[in-house]
Specification:
By secondary structure, this protein is α+β, with helices and mostly antiparallel strands. It is built from 3 helices and 9 strands. A 5-stranded antiparallel β-sheet has the order 8-7-2-1-9. Strands 4-3-5-6 form a 4-stranded antiparallel β-sheet, with helices on one face. The longest helix has 57 residues.
Length: 167
C-alpha cells in the first residue's frame, strides 16, 4: 500500500467502495453461516431443556415414591457425614442448598424454643435432634434454603426438602 496521506479523497472513497464490493459476498455467506449455527444451537437448547424437564419429572416422581428421604428423615436417621454428601431438592424438583445465601458451607438451624444452634454436618445435626431440638428457629419451624448461585433464600417445611446422594 502506498502512503495514504498522499492520495486524493476521491481515490480513498473509490478504494473503500472496491473493498465493500469484495466484502458483499462474504457478508452474505457469513450471515448464512450464522443462521445455520443458530438453528443448531436452538436444537441443542431444545434437547437440553427436554432432558432437564424429563430429569426433573423423574426426580419428582422418585421423591413422591419415597426413594429419597426428606431433610427431617435424614437428620433423624443419620448420625455422621457431611451435608455436602447430599444434593437437596424442593418438592417441586428445584435444587437448593441448605443455610443462608452466601455462606461457604451448608448448614441446618435447630432450636429448643429459645436458643438457636447451627449444624454444619450430620453428626452435629443428630446430636441436636437427639437432644430434642427441632429444625428451625424460635417460632419459625423449617429449613432455610437458597438457590445455588443466588441471594434468594427462604424458609420451607422440612418435609418439603428432599436429600439424595450428591453426584
Amino acid at each position: 500500500m502506498t502512503d495514504l496521506a498522499e492520495l486524493e479523497a476521491a481515490e480513498l472513497e473509490r478504494r473503500v467502495e472496491v473493498i465493500r464490493e469484495r466484502m458483499r459476498p462474504l457478508d452474505a455467506e457469513l450471515a448464512a453461516l450464522r443462521g445455520e449455527r443458530d438453528v443448531l444451537l436452538t436444537e441443542l437448547r431444545r434437547r437440553r431443556r427436554l432432558a432437564e424437564r424429563t430429569s426433573r419429572a423423574d426426580l419428582k416422581s422418585r421423591m413422591r415414591e419415597g426413594t429419597f428421604p426428606t431433610v427431617a428423615e435424614l437428620v433423624a436417621g443419620t448420625d455422621d457425614g457431611s451435608l455436602d454428601d447430599y444434593a437437596f431438592n424442593l418438592k417441586t424438583g428445584g435444587e437448593v442448598r441448605l443455610g443462608f445465601p452466601g455462606a461457604r458451607a451448608q448448614s441446618l438451624t435447630f432450636t429448643d424454643g429459645v436458643q438457636v444452634a447451627h449444624a454444619h454436618d450430620l453428626a452435629r445435626a443428630a446430636e441436636l435432634y437427639e437432644a430434642g431440638w427441632a429444625l428451625g428457629s424460635p417460632g419459625r419451624p423449617g429449613v432455610r434454603v437458597h438457590f445455588a448461585g443466588t441471594r434468594q433464600g427462604r424458609l420451607v417445611p422440612a418435609e418439603e426438602v428432599y436429600a439424595r446422594p450428591a453426584g
